[in-house]
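Researcher: Go.
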Amino acid sequence: MVTYLADPPIVVALDVPNAEEAIRLAKKVSPAVGGFKIGLELLMGPGPGLVGILDQLGKPVFVDAKLHDIPHTVGRAARQLGMAGARWVTAHAAGGPAMLEAAVEGLEAGARGRPAGILAITVLTSLNDAILAHSGVPVTAGKLTSKRSKLAADAGAEGVVCSVKELGVINEVAATLAKVTPGIRPLGEDAGDQQRIATPEEAIRRGSNLLVIGRPITRAADPRAAAEAIAAGLQSGPTHST
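Model: Structure:
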């Protein structure tokens, strides 16, 4: 069974260039979302210190660091993010089992008893079968997600980051993993640079436990109202999966 993640099951992606804008946006949408995500842009700008500031707003912080290096380096990086207050940290499943295990151990050590878990990146939602083939990957996104999800479960990851399209294959091989889905677009929203997208309602119906939503909220004229509308459409409380 997947444990309680967030209520509502929406993590807003704070893909903005500076800490001031991120904090202002987080405060504005906080009542309508279940958590905050910061990615590489903010990590390379204001840095991990922003994690602690956002954590003080009382919502879990998802650090989309996409760690991918030798196990020793990844373990130490994950430990630093755990110390900063990260609830979830991403690491590429493509890095292999030893790297994922190091990430899990490092994050747990840094969190010092606080809830914290590694989310393994399966296949980026900006990729599709044609792009994978062009890149020299001889399998479909679904088959690759299946293999990497099993690897993530065996390594002790809390969950995986995947496309809504691959939720079914994950349930077949690693049903206990939390399933976190980016590429979420309400009806009528532009897909942007995403290749494998779904609506929030479709994602929850197919078994997603946590939706990562950025531009449909952050670029709306009223971000809080946009988040509230998405949450109302889900008509959900805390998400669980059996």
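Model: The chain has one domain: 10-234.
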